[in-house]
Design goal:
4 helices; mainly alpha
Length: 105
């Protein structure tokens, strides 16, 4: 599964492949890392207080880090979340967003 650096690298590659779609690409990459870290801390705090909640911190952090992955794909930022979700579905397995352990799927 991806980690923060993997997401930031993927985002950096998308920025390079789609120049001029973002006003501040460096801030975009930084934002992805900050959101990932924030989610990681929130999950850690929740689990410290409520250890029986079935949260997987790595998955929540991954989803948080990926929430803006669609921004570099198009200059128009409207529905970038949906664009990013579709892109992650189409390209995510190749990039290690998720690993399918059950080959019978």
């Amino acid at each position: 599964m991806m980690d923060k650096n993997s997401i930031q690298n993927w985002a950096r590659n998308l920025v390079e492949a789609n120049p001029d779609h973002l006003n501040d690409p460096d801030n975009y990459i930084k934002h992805i890392g900050q959101v990932y870290n924030l989610a990681e801390g929130v999950v850690r705090n929740i689990l410290a207080r409520y250890p029986n909640i079935p949260l997987i911190g790595e998955e929540v952090s991954l989803a948080s880090g990926l929430h803006d992955i669609g921004r570099p794909l198009q200059k128009d930022q409207t529905v970038h979340e949906l664009r990013g979700a579709r892109y992650s579905e189409q390209e995510g397995l190749k990039k290690g967003v998720a690993i399918i352990n059950d080959v019978s799927l």
